[in-house]
Amino acid sequence: MKKRLQSAVRSSQESFADRRFAGWSCKLRTATCLLTFAFATTILGQTDSTPKDKQSPPDVLRKLSKRERLEKIKGLDVRHQDFVGDVEPIIVPAELDTFLMLETDAQRDSFVDDFWRRRDAAGGSPTISFRDVYYSRLEVAKERFRKINTDRAKMFLLHGPPSDVVRADCSRLLQPIEIWKYSQMQGVGQGVRLLFYKPRYANDYKLWNPIGGAVALAELTAADVIAASAADRATPRDISESSSPYAYLSRIQLECRDGDEIMRAITGMVQMRIDLLKLFEPPQMKEEDAAKMLRSVVIANPKAPKLATDFSVAYPGKEGSRTDVQLTLLVPREQISPAEISGTEVYTIDVTGEVLRDGKLWEKYRYRFDFPGDFRGDKLPIVIDRYLRPAEYLSRIKVMDANSGAEAVVENALKVPEVFVPEPVQVAAAEEIAPHPDPLPAVSGERETKEPSLRIVPPSGDPVSGIQTIDTIISGEGIKGVEFSLDGKKVAVRRSEPFALDFDFGMVPQTRRIRVVGLDAQGKPLTGDELTVNTGTDPFRVRIVSPRIAPRLAGTARIAMDVRVPEGEELAALELFWNERRMATLYDAPFVQSIEIPPTEGVGYIRAVATLKNSSTPPVEDVVMINTPAFMEELNVHLVELPTTVLIGGKPADHLTEKSFKILDEGKPVPIAKFDYVKNLPLSIGMAFDVSGSMGTRLDEAQKAGAEFFEQVMRKGDKAFLVAFNKDVELVQKWSTRMADMHAGLARLRAEDMTALYDAVVYSLYNFQGIRGQKALILISDGKDTDSKFTFDQVMDYARRAAVPIYAIGISIKGTEVDVRYRLNKLAAETGGSVYYIEQARELHKVYDELQTELRSQYILGFYPPADIKPGSKWREVTVQSAEGKVKTVKGYFP
């Protein structure tokens, strides 16, 4: 492959070096060319000839001086010195400084691979790597040109060989000239002509720069032109004309053999004068990428305070053929500086690690460890698990205090052994399959009984998306087939093992109900299980684990339940009902209770209701229908609730009655089935915080404003969560009712990387699944989405289904960023929220005041969809009208 590329490049080089322009006539009038040049040079005279300096890289990437670069290059291994010399025309300063700041040859080898990988991505060639193409060009350039840092050599290396070259023969008027012709040049256009000339007293060609007008044109003038022109002058007028650009250009076109071609090149370069500045620019490296690269490798900062560490290694187990290598570092707590937000302290330690094998970088990793301020140990334990094949390695770990910058770099040789673990007993195999989202309480005597039992093995991941295989666990006797249903619709029946089926849950996580029914030989239902996935992250919930499906249940029935209680809360009671009759009240685990099901009552339901102690959080419940006939249709009749705000004079109204409102479903009036004016109800608030690199200078103020928001807004009974997003989305703080947790989450925020805004919206809304009452998502960002896997249309669809008001706050988003503002506006308007645009993060407290007033004072309107509307049908538009003022609410619903 390499020889073929070199041959092709050489062939192109020989072709353009030998061919001349032949037969293609300009057919442009001289006056047209002159006027174009005159107009362009007039504008160029008004343009600053020196491009503005680019912004300096972030602090993590220190800009090296020329002297520092030379000294560091001298200290490199020969192969890395060659790399720097070879790529000089295509490496940007940020990349070069990054490369020179690396400490080990293994890091530099990894950098070289990443360097060419970025060029492959920019070039877009799926079959030939840019590295192969570049080195083929480099070999030709070294033979053809004096040095590879000359203009012609750099142009050849960056843009490849031209399709043709014209060597203009007009030595009486011009310096030696070459015109390179490109049929297509990326970033410039089609039919590009580049004029290279050899300046007087110079040894090599230079790309002509038209900026400067007549002065630039004089650079092309032959040395004897002035003397020859002076000999032809007869009158003052003749002198004036002969010394003007017009006369000179006219002479070139008329007297030079390739005059038309020269005029085309001059005119073309004047017209693309701005693009000329970009011709020698290699593919740019984003500053965030350079900073990220440095953060991902172990580099010691000689000026940083030093941390003491104790290191130990253990090999506690294995995963497949790999050994679990457990690396433990103990860092004295007294040497770590905690971050403090509103009196809450958090210790944050960043860990960067490398594993080397035979001198090459085997793997690298990064972690962040957070410890509460009230951690009582003298040393903070940093435990890292890596899975490595038995062999000898070198471990390099950098531990850094994120707040003070104090650090330690620890190097240790690892001799990873083969670990032998006894195989698990076969009888426990079923229990080792991924558990239910809620733990499955053991049922006494379940293994010994011959009664049929069927359980769903939950799909992996949370939330669940894409194609997932739903497996089942069957015990007892009698099950000959399994019927699978999704969201109330039968999908398939499996009559032979394995009793499993693939389900497509889609890209965007939605609440889905999986139902499996065990059938006997005649196809009659015996037992089954039911599982709802993508139920959100609400920490307070109850689930009836068993039974889930019981077509024939009577007599003594053993009911197993599971309860999740939010951190810091306490369960008051768990009540168990048969239909509406309370059968038992449970206060402590295990939550298992036997009740009597009358044999004659037929269809009924079991209901479990959990209540928290000393909390304004409403109770939660779960219901299971039993003794239902196979043909019984499940109706999904649900009340559509519309949290509504009416603004009068810009302030929420609190005096309206039900008669003040009118609800239209798809333009048709519907009866109002629910009307409440709620004030000071418990709030469930999510905050999605942009921590991309562009937020770096604003983050401190935004953190303080966020802490102020939670202090002002959160009251007893409220709960909140905090999501941080850059190129990834992270749940920094799960649902919590404690102010200190929110402050601790804010203290952990740091700005870096890209912006996955749409992913953050989807993930944040997912957390609201199953949440009832007053809800709101606060979205804080300073820019557009740059790195999401979800599209805006997918986000809008998901936001409509979630029915959570989104309050978007745009920081320093200019009015010219029309697309960004349009999408934020639409997200807020469609969900019944609002959008605010501010210039500085310190202005957030003004926005928060308005938000609190609105969230604490709303009307809850409700209606039932028409009877002929089936669940799962398309989005339906809803309008709420009031003659009293401006109405804000959600714009529709999915049945």
Structural summary, described in words:
This protein starts with a helix and ends with a strand. With 895 residues, it is of the alpha+beta class. Mean pLDDT is 78; it is low at 1-6, 8-59, 226-231, 233-243, 423-449 and 631-635. The longest helix has 19 residues, at 105-123. The chain has a 6-stranded mixed sheet, sandwiched between helices. Strands 7, 8, 9, 11 and 12 form a 5-stranded antiparallel sheet that branches. Strands 27, 28, 31, 38 and 40 form a 5-stranded antiparallel sheet that branches. Helix 7 runs antiparallel to helix 8 (151-159) and helix 12 (245-255) packs across helix 13 (259-271). It folds into 5 domains: 2-20 and 29-49 and 58-276, no CATH class; 298-416, Immunoglobulins (Immunoglobulin-like); 448-626, Immunoglobulin-like, CATH 2.60.40.10; 637-678 and 859-895, no CATH class; 681-855, von Willebrand factor, type A domain (Rossmann fold). The chain has 21 helices and 41 strands.
SSE blueprint:
Blueprint: H1 2-18, H2 30-44, H3 66-74, H4 78-86, H5 93-101, H6 105-123, H7 130-144, H8 151-159, E1 164-168, E2 177-185, E3 189-197, E4 206-207, H9 214-218, H10 225-232, H11 236-242, H12 245-255, H13 259-271, H14 273-276, H15 287-295, E5 310-319, E6 322-332, E7 339-341, E8 344-357, E9 360-372, E10 379-388, E11 391-401, E12 407-416, E13 453-457, E14 467-475, E15 481-486, E16 489-494, E17 501-504, E18 512-519, E19 525-533, E20 541-546, E21 555-564, E22 571-578, E23 581-586, E24 592-597, E25 604-612, E26 620-626, E27 640-648, E28 651-652, E29 662-665, E30 668-670, E31 674-679, E32 683-690, H16 699-713, E33 719-725, E34 729-736, H17 739-747, H18 757-766, E35 774-781, H19 792-802, E36 806-811, H20 818-831, E37 834-838, H21 844-855, E38 857-863, E39 876-881, E40 886-888, E41 892-893
Parallel strand pairs: 32-33, 32-35, 35-36, 36-37
Antiparallel strand pairs: 1-2, 2-3, 3-4, 5-6, 6-10, 7-8, 8-9, 8-11, 11-12, 13-14, 14-17, 15-16, 15-18, 18-19, 20-21, 21-24, 22-23, 22-25, 25-26, 27-28, 27-38, 27-40, 29-30, 29-39, 31-38, 33-34, 39-41
